[in-house]
Design goal:
With about 190 residues, the chain is mainly β.
Length: about 190
């Protein structure tokens, strides 16, 4: 993450009072966020081991298939998804040999910019005009993909596919508006400072 604030040069003796008011008081802010992809584990979601423990059933890992790549190309973003053919249901009564956190989700990168203009109305009051842009480049940022399900090996399975944008994946703790990773959005504001 990197952040910057730059106050644009303002008043100058070369400008008349009105021009100096317009050209002064501007500031530009930015935040660039880049995160590497989070790891996740392939899970089957059923009790193959046969021990009757629901927690263990929901955390049962598959076997790895020798010679199959973990990822395959996709025609849609993020253009690389987990390969369901790289995993197999283990034999009944056994546990799978796929390691924990062997898959990676998509990374996240986003640039947010803000442009502010402060106008001094009097000795005690000023007005600030603000324009803020989030995810300026509208770069898609996806949440962690579906990692489990009884349909791990069936056609049409959601295994390895992200079902939502990163800003919607907080489990309801935060509104998507307040999370990184959403589509481009712009907000305008006027603020009275005293």
């Amino acid at each position: 993450m990197a952040a910057f604030t730059y106050a644009l040069p303002g008043k100058s003796a070369h400008f008349q009072n009105v021009a100096a008011r317009f050209l002064g008081g501007w500031s530009l802010e930015g935040i660039f966020t880049a995160q590497t992809a989070a790891p996740y584990t392939a899970l089957i979601g059923e009790d193959i081991a046969g021990n009757g423990d629901q927690f263990a059933a929901n955390n049962q890992r598959p076997d790895l298939v020798t010679g199959q790549p973990l990822y395959i190309a996709s025609s849609a973003p993020p253009f690389r998804v987990a390969n369901p053919a790289a995993f197999a249901i283990p034999a009944a009564g056994t546990y799978g040999d796929a390691g924990r956190n062997i898959l990676r989700a998509s990374g996240l990168n986003q640039l947010d910019l803000g442009l502010h203009k402060t106008v001094k109305a009097s000795e005690r009051f000023s007005v600030q005009f603000r324009a803020e842009l989030f995810n300026v480049y509208n770069h898609p940022n996806f949440a962690s993909p579906a990692a489990s399900g009884n349909n791990l090996l069936t056609a049409g399975s959601s295994f390895g596919l992200s079902q939502e944008m990163a800003n919607s994946s907080s489990g309801g703790l935060l509104l998507p508006l307040f999370n990184s990773g959403g589509p481009r959005s712009i907000q305008l504001a006027v603020k009275l400072v005293f």
